[in-house]
Amino acid sequence: MKICIVDDTQINLTLMQALVAKVEGCQPVCFDESLAGLQYCIDEDIDLVIVDYMMPSPDGLEFIAQLRATANRAEVPILMVTADHEKEVRYRALEIGATDFLTKPVDRIEFLSRVRNMLAIRRSHVMLNDRAETLAEEVRKATAEIAAREKEVIYRLSKAAEYRDPETGAHIVRMTHYSALIARQLGWSEDAVDLILQAAPMHDVGKLGTPDHILLKPAHLTDAEFAIMKQHTTMGAAILRDSTSPMLQLAAQIALRHHEKFDGSGYPDGLAGEAIPLAARIVAVADVFDALTSSRPYKKAWEVDRALALLQDGQGKHFDPECVAAFLVNIDQALAIRDRFRDEDE
Amino acid sequence: MPTLFDRAAVLANLDGDTDLLREIAGIFLDSYVDDITRIGAAIATADADAVYSLVHTLKGSAGNFGAAELVATARVMEQQARQGHLDSVTADFRRLSELLEQLAAELRDATNSAKQS
After folding, report:
1. pLDDT in tens, A145-188
2. Which residue of A has its CA nearest to B63?
3. CA distances (Å), A48 to each of A28, A59, A120, A186, in order?
4. Chain B contacts of A34, Cβ < 8 Å?
């Protein structure tokens, strides 16, 4: 334990230094000049400060006031040394933040007892702070683990839902990142972007209820088949509905509404404009762009420019113009995403 | 004259450490003459604040050796100076100087005889 003693009177300094040196585990650091002592106590982590009252400026009271005003020095124990008739000085010192007092002339028994008590207090503080830090770290780790596990479960669930689907897993990853790109451009907070990153993968989870002969048909669907295919939106919403989790609520919205069209000609309910949740309007752009620029059993991948032209033509009709614009502004990043998450057979 | 230096009590307070006693006695002996000079100068220039703080400090140092009468005299001077009354302080100062010389002599004796034994 480091104990700093500040007293401009040589005899007192010598005495207190000798006394401190007798206490087990204690190392005295002495200053006969107030300002130098103060600077040391501000810069270093001292375990106990013993400061004389009667010193040239800063005197004991100013010393304590300035030390307490420093960051991280609100709790270090401070003993102020005064002559025993200086009552008002002591009251003042208590107000400013002195922990306790020592009277002059220094009495050995009183000195040792007070120092030991102060150090016991100090030890408790240090232990408490350490423990608080350790606990905070444990909580951080545990929370991070839980969050990571949650994300993984969602991802695997989404993969499970798409397992029968001829569309590959990389589609999910790409369109999710396109969605995040658009959301960020539209000014979503990082927390919100994180939600859409977790929710978007589940947009087609309703396809679990789509029969194989429709889901896996390599050619275009008949009207009757399409009617059944469309139900994957309502089925996805049914699977994800009624959660207290904001993320799952978002996922339900996206699953239900990502096939609505801006002009109201979409499905399942023909919602239009801002009646369609923004997340669904975002995913619509992301999903279509990826569908166009990927190979499917029934079509080849389109050139990027052709796909972008379709998006632009669709502004106000299929797509929310702001979502398309947000995507176009970031087309370079989108292409980097496309490059990064290629389908395995390419 | 009654003894100023309370050797038994001081040594007890120092836990019998005669080396430490010699050290602090040495510090006192090295500085008391200077202190007397400075207090005298402060009185001569009627600097009540300086008289107060110099006497206060001296009181504190001397108190480490017991020196009850010296401490009492110093306290009176200190309080007078605090209130700006320097008239009686001059007389007290003479007494203070005598007592300081006495304490110094006793400390010299004590530390010299300690060396011899």
Report:
1. 998 888 888 778 777 777 777 666 688 899 999 999 999 999 99
2. A105
3. 10, 18, 10, 55
4. none
Q: Which residues of A touch B13 (CB under 8 A)?
A: 106-108
Number of residues in chain A: 346
Read off the pTM: 0.60
CA distance A296 to A9: 90
d(CA B88, CA B85): 7
The answer to whether the Cβ–Cβ distance between A12 and B56 falls below 8 Å is: no
**Higher pLDDT among residues A326 and A72, named by residue:** A326
Residue A280 near residue A257 (C-beta atoms within 8 A): yes
**What is the distance in angstroms between the Cα of A23 and the nearest Cα belonging to chain B?**
13
Alpha carbon distance A157, A205 (integer Å): 8
- State the amino acid at position A158 in one-letter form: S
Residues of B within 8 A of A54 (CB-CB) are: 53, 56-57, 60
Chain A residues in contact with B31 by the CB 8 A cut-off are: 10
Task: Check if the beta carbon of residue A311 is closer than 8 Å to that of residue A324.
Answer: yes
Is ipTM beyond 0.90?
no
* Nearest CA among A26, A11, A43, A31 for reference residue A123: A26
Chain A residues in contact with B60 by the CB 8 A cut-off are 9, 11-12, 54, 83, 104-105
Contact A106 B64 (CB under 8 A): yes
Q: How far is A108 from chain B (nearest CA, A)?
A: 5
Interchain proximity B61–A15, CB inside 8 Å: no
**Those residues with Cβ within 8 angstroms of residue A3's Cβ, 6 or more apart along the chain or in another chain:** A20, A26, A27, A28, A29, A46, A47, A48, A49, A50, A115
DSSP summary character for residue B66: B
Q: Quick one: which H or E segment has residue A3?
A: strand A2-6
The number of residues in chain B equals 117
Q: Is the peptide bond before A297 cis (omega within 30 degrees of 0)?
A: no
Residue B64: which of A54, A83, A105 has the nearest Cβ?
A: A105
Dihedral angle sign, alpha carbons of residues B82, B86, B90, B92: negative
Helix runs in chain B, H state only: 7-13, 18-44, 48-63, 68-82, 87-116
Q: Which residue type occupies A164?
A: R
Strand partners, A52: A81
In a 3-state reduction of DSSP, which class is residue B67?
coil
